[in-house]
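Tutorial, part two.
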Amino acid sequence: MWGRYSKRPLYQNEHSSSDRYNAYDIAIIVNNLQQNALEACERMTSGERYISLSGSRKNRFFLISVKNSFEGEVVFDKSTNLPVSTKAPESSGGPAPFHGIGLSNVRLEAAKYLGNVDIKVKKNEFSVTVLLQERKKKRVQEEAKDAWMDAAKEVNANL
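Running the prediction step on this input gives:
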């Protein structure tokens, strides 16, 4: 499935295993970014389709980056600074279930690690870079709970 979207290397990983990150948290980030990139490429009617996923670690920081091609314009919500979802509403006229929450989830997960999500759009390339800070295991568990609660309150306030 991936081969039809890219001639570029799909995945590069320079991150050694660490008990400082929860694998489930990393999976949420990668899955959401990957799904968004796939959907953007599937909507393209012309041009080269590509998705590039990379991960690297330097000292106490882990960087996850996804770049993909897309067509059209990206509109950012002024209150969240996240792109407005392009998913079609349900046939009933209301929003689709879990519609547009992918990047919000990525932001929530990054907050657990005192991290950041950077989104850039240049011409027909959309890129998301997630920076996570490695924490001591005990502090990760304690602070993750607090960060998750704070970020969830922010997301709920913007719904």
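Helices lie at 23-42, 102-112, 137-157. In part three we will examine how such features are distributed along the chain.
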